[in-house]
Amino acid sequence: MAQDTLTAARQLLGKKVTATVEGEVTSGYITEVEAYLGFEDKAAHAYQGRRTKKNEMMYRDYGGIYIYTMHGHHCMNFITRDAASPEGVLIRGLEPAEGFEIMQKRRGRTDHLTDGPGKLTKSMGIRRDLHNGLRLNEGAITLSEGKKPEVIKESKRIGIDNKEEAVDYLYRFTVAGNPHVSKDRVKPAFNNGWQ
DNA sequence: ACGAAGATCTTCT
DNA sequence: GAAGATCTTCGTT
């Protein structure tokens, strides 16, 4: 079911991500994502077809996992198209489901475990050297049905202040009323914004 | 071989 | 709200 990346980003909200690392299982429901659209998107790693060893995975087929590191943190993307369109969705926030104690142990704290792209990978034990280039549902990381958002909120992407007009694109999608998102301080809605 | 940049996080005021 | 920590990749000498 390959389709356009913005649609895929919206549909990822509420899906359940499960990671099995070193025999320990953690999972969570997706609360926050951002779309990156390759050629025409100045904020994307694959802008204008830029292709390096680092972002090579963006040119893989739908369902691939692209993990990059920056400032000593790991960030996870799901690839949405194919080599002709290097596009993907960055997973920025999760609502913890299983493995809460494992997440706390890995993070060394008891709160704010998965409300940011670098935090959720650390909580789940996801690392570039272990998981970059794997495919969903064929290895340590699986995607399955989860919850449905009541309302999807659009906003500007985070952390790309120097990308000129790309900073204004509304390519960030969050579950309205869910507190497990980065930056925003949200008042929890009924049922954390799920249907 | 070197330097700069980066889709971040934590801690401090 | 601001700044420092931290580290890998890439482009240039």
Automatic annotation (TrEMBL):
Pfam families: Pur_DNA_glyco. One of its GO terms (molecular function) is DNA binding. It comes from the Bacteria. One of its GO terms (biological process) is base-excision repair. It is an enzyme of class 3 (hydrolase). Its EC number is 3.2.2.-. The keyword DNA repair applies. CDD domains: AAG (cd00540). The keyword DNA repair applies. Signal peptide: none annotated. Keywords: DNA damage, DNA repair, Hydrolase. InterPro entries: Formyl_transferase-like_C_sf, MPG, MPG_sf. Belongs to the DNA glycosylase MPG family. PANTHER family: DNA-3-METHYLADENINE GLYCOSYLASE. This is Putative 3-methyladenine DNA glycosylase. It comes from Macrococcus hajekii. The lineage of its organism: Bacteria, Bacillati, Bacillota, Bacilli, Bacillales.
